[in-house]
Design a protein that fits this description.
- There is one protein chain.
- The protein has one domain: 2-Layer Sandwich (Alpha-Beta Plaits).
- The protein contains three helices and four strands, in the order βαββαβα.
- It is globular.
- The protein has a four-stranded antiparallel sheet with strand order 2-3-1-4.
């Protein structure tokens, strides 16, 4: 499973509730700002983009990126810093394991 950051600017006429339900369907999610979310999923960035595009009207912007190994924030919408840190740390754990394995070679 990977953590992805999803950010969007919805064009006029879109249904925010439908888009938010689609994002929440990934299971583990955190709403970071009004239009930025973190999700934990086995899907790729392309798959997430294609899925969420179905809920965005023409002219909307959508950005999906796999989370890296460092993050910092201030005054985000997430109800708990621990929850956001937990969802983002999934990548940190994986990257640390890969670094350790490469040092053994």
């Amino acid at each position: 499973m990977e953590t992805y950051i999803i950010s969007y600017d919805m064009a006029w006429g879109g249904d925010y509730n439908a888009l938010h339900e689609a994002i929440q369907s990934y299971g583990a999610w955190a709403r970071i700002t009004d239009s930025t979310w973190a999700v934990l999923t086995e899907y790729s960035a392309h798959m997430i983009r294609d899925h969420l595009s179905e809920y965005l009207p023409d002219g909307s912007r959508l950005f999906v990126v796999r989370s890296g190994d460092e993050a910092a924030w201030q005054y985000v919408n997430c109800s708990s810093d621990e929850w956001l840190e937990g969802i983002l740390s999934q990548d940190v754990t994986r990257l640390n394991k890969l670094r350790l394995l490469s040092q053994l070679d």
